[in-house]
Amino acid sequence: MRTWKSRWLPCSLLRAFALAAAYALAQPAGAANYPLELVSPRAAGTAPSSDSGTPSIPAGHRIFKAYPGIPYNIKAVVIAGAFPYRFQLANAPGGMTINAATGEISWPNPQADATPTIIVTDAEGTQRSSAWSITVTTSGFRFVDSVRGSDSNAGTLSAPWATFMKALNSGSSADIVYFRTGTYRADGSHETEIGGASQPTRWLAYPGETPVYDGGYVAGGSTGSTLRINASGAYPVYIEGFSMRNIYHMGIQFFSGSCDYPVFRNLAFDGPAVAIDGSNSAGIMTTNSLEDPTYYAAYQGLSQVNGGSGLVKQYSHKKHLWENFTITNSRLGPDQKMHVPRFEIRQFTITNNRDDWQGGIFGNMQFGSGGVGEKSSGEIRFNFVDRRNMSSTTMALDLNQNGDSGTMNVYRNTFLGRVRVRNADSADGPFRFYNNVIVNGDSGSHIYLESVSAPSRVTSTDDLTGGPGANIVDANGQLTGAYSQYVGLRGHQIGAASAPPSPPGNVIVE
Fold it and tell me: Are 307 and 281 in contact (CB under 8 A)?
């Protein structure tokens, strides 16, 4: 077998696999709840899973093209398995690197086509890998520069357009549009329709620059415009690097339709200003038909300050990822709504939010309507939610609002505030809590059950819990010296690869 490998696999690929395996052996063991899936990057026309109904990634995805001389930057999308992951590249072109911990891929100066291979190894040693092809070309790229451009230009790198609306109305759905530093606005109507067969929905900040999208909201005046994106299945939505400002109650309304593998990455929201009850107010609100959920959406590196409504509200997505959100000084938290099977929420930081029970991680998390869909289910792991600005019984996590959730695995989080499960009967859940740090004013397991007729559906295993006076965490949410033996074992802190074995059983500090 060794001879066969050395004959057919490049040495760089063999070395990468060997290093990844060595990393896995150094990690503390942790059982995966679902099989590891490398969503992206991967070869066009392939899929991360053989599960029935799983779509393949289309050849029109943003990851498959680079512009000569403009830095190419993407981030791996990985779900399930045992976190944390370790990333490596093989057969990479000169200058291409990957962040071993985060999966961010950088190629500062693309000049010729390339076919690198990405390898991800989870904390149990499970590996997934895929090669993907990158075409380096000037074809299919457009450029917008509000400072130096003109709408009478051709929309090229040397002759960019000036406005957002010009890019929408003169581009095509196959285009990738780079925006330079400047301020961009829609047409000022209440809703700006985008997408379909003719308009681009792949918008990238020019590397090293931060374009500002101004929604046009003025307190006491205009409510501005919501961007209503109707996605293309051939060219998945990919929006990256914008600062979103002056938003009334909704920034982007994403009608995902046939669009699988969409990406919303590194978007910074100041606002939205208000939440309108019953209107799904959010920075990004996504929806789709229950019969045809969107697969493998990735929301990575989003941030929100001063939000009167939540950052994201999600309908009818399957196996979607929320990763690395930072939310502070806002009213509401992110909201999983209806028909969201196998969602994953990881590595959030939520601090100083204002709403009593909707300021943490929450949501309806309901089945669907008319008997259509699947039960909402998911993993919530490695998050830090700090509600100490309100009280020790203010919600950090709220599950099963509508009383029909499926399996929820909640582990390796730090929750400072109430953790609540509601309305659970024998058909709901199970709701599995383990290896968390939970600090609040409740007693016992510190998981508050409200209208729960089947308490056996809620379990707590190997959690570290206590009251606000127990001095379990410091002002930054890190475990104090008295509990340093739990670093890397309980709560959101990753810890060292050589962390000691986990002490057995719940640890309750009152």
Answer: no
The CATH class for the domain spanning 2-133 reads: mainly beta
Cα–Cα distances in Å, from 134 out to 77, 177, 205, 392?
A: 17, 17, 19, 50
Q: Where are the domains of the chain?
A: 2-133, 140-332, 384-510
Rounded alpha-carbon distances, angstroms, from residue 306 to 33, 273, 274, 333: 36, 7, 10, 12
16: helix, strand or coil:
helix
Residue 187 CB partners (closer than 8 Å, separation 6+) = 165, 225
Count of residues making up the chain: 510
13: phi then psi, degrees, rounded to nearest 5:
-70, -40
Angle subtended at Cα 488 by Cα 106 and Cα 395, rounded to the nearest 5 degrees: 95
What is the C-alpha to C-alpha distance for residues 412 and 168, in angstroms, rounded to an integer? 43
Q: Which CATH number fits domain 140-332: 2.30.130, 2.60.40, 1.10.287, 2.160.20?
A: 2.160.20
Rounded to the nearest 5°, which phi and psi values hold at 20? -65, -40
Element (H, E) at 143: strand 141-144
Q: Which residue type does 162 have?
A: A
Q: By the 8 A CB rule, do 302 and 264 touch?
A: yes
Nearest CA among 40, 85, 64, 35 for reference residue 260: 40
- With contact defined as beta carbons under 8 Å apart, do 140 and 147 qualify? no
Phi and psi torsions of 396, nearest 5°: -95, -30
In whole angstroms, give the CA distance from residue 347 to residue 31: 18
- Residue 220 exposure: Cα atoms within 13 Å on the Cβ side: 0
Residues 63-110: tens digit of each pLDDT: 999 999 999 999 999 999 999 999 999 999 999 999 999 999 999 999
Which regions of the chain are under pLDDT 70?
1-30, 190, 196-197, 369-372, 496-503
Q: What is the 3-state secondary structure (H, E, C) of 217-265?
A: CCCCCCCCCEEEEECCCCCCCEEECCEEECCCCEEEEEECCCCCCCEEE
In this structure, is the dihedral angle defined by the CA atoms of residues 460, 465, 468 and 469, taken in order, positive or negative? positive
Q: What are phi and psi of 286, to 5 degrees?
A: -120, 145
| Residue entry with tokens 């329709």 | 193
Tell me: the pLDDT tens digits for 4-18?
333 344 555 555 555
